[in-house]
Amino acid sequence: MKAVVLRSFGEAGNLKLETVPMPRPGRGEVLLRVHACGVCYHDVINRRGNLPRTSVPAILGHEAAGEVIEVGPDTPGWKTGDRAATLQRMSCGECALCKSGRNSLCKTDNRFFGEELQGGYAQFMVAPVGGLGRVPASLPWNEAATVCCTTGTAVHTVRTRGQVRSGETVLITGASGGVGLSSVQLARLDGARVIAVTSSEAKVRALKEAGADEVIVSRGLDFASEVRKRTQGAGVDMAVEIVGSATFDQTLKSMAPGGRVVVVGNLESGMVQLNPGLVIVKELEILGAYATTQAELDEALRLTATGGVRQFVTDAVPLAEAAKAHFRLENREVAGRLVLVPPEA
């Protein structure tokens, strides 16, 4: 089969199309014919060598959607022809964390697609069925591929971890990416006022289409004073921190007393300095948000299929152009998601 293989960490050009052996499903697994795979900034971080659990050679991609063409032994409930999309990572379903609904923190089985598990930058991939969701027949493949990591992450971040409430004001950094655009829509759907931050004037239109009440264009990412101005000095009740280290200080300064900062991204893998006094006197809550659970993926697929949340797929490009897709993402040329489309087998 054809797959994009990363044989050494580093620049985008290290992603090369190759012919590799066809995988076969084992117990509890299915073989998917990949119809589409989203390109996430997590893939860029992975390609650079900043995720310690990935070893090369590797096939990246945790946003895959496709059709089941073979079912492994002892895999009840799945058949050829079923439509599926991947979660970002696995969970065992049996440990105390899983049973409490915190599947994204499972340590018993924490394999991640594109890291320990083969990813979707390929014509075919084997996937454990515990890491799959069922794609509605009405949902196009290009949209289905992106749902888990965009809208699923938004459900986990905005609802599960942030517990957004109607009438609140929500700040979203890095808002023009896939997670950001879904977070804008979901927060609005749940009755919040949304202030979106982007570094590019070219991305304002997509944010307005997603429903952002206000958009702050801040090329230097020094947006806190403008946020406070637009909230009459009050600050925001909740922040979805997608950029991470580059905007964290400004986000903290944008918070209202008692505010909640949900950290879901750290694009440059950087460190931050934190003034504990600010957290203390404002009684701020800083919450982490990691990966989508099975229930959250099901909800994300439902929201997308029923039109509650729209997937912003900017472009669908051939699998062979994975390196170009990474280059475009790194250079902030993309609002929403790029999707890789493998060639017909």
Number of helices: 10
Shape: globular
Q: What is the number of strand segments?
A: 15
Rg of Cα set: 20 Å
> What is the third-level CATH name, the topology of the largest domain?
Quinone Oxidoreductase, Chain A, domain 1
Most strands sheet: 7 strands, mixed
Structural class of the helix and strand makeup?
A: alpha/beta
Strand residues, percent? 15-25%
State the separation between the terminal residues, measured CA to CA.
7 Å
The CATH class label of the largest domain is Alpha Beta
The name of the CATH architecture of the largest domain is Alpha-Beta Complex
Full CATH superfamily name of the largest domain:
Medium-chain alcohol dehydrogenases, catalytic domain
Approximate helicity band: 25-40%
Which segments are poorly predicted (pLDDT under 50) over 5 or more consecutive residues? none
Mean pLDDT: 96
Keywords: Acetylation, Cytoplasm, NADP, RNA-binding
Subunit structure: Homotetramer.
GO molecular function, one term: zinc ion binding
Domain Enoyl reductase (ER): 10-340
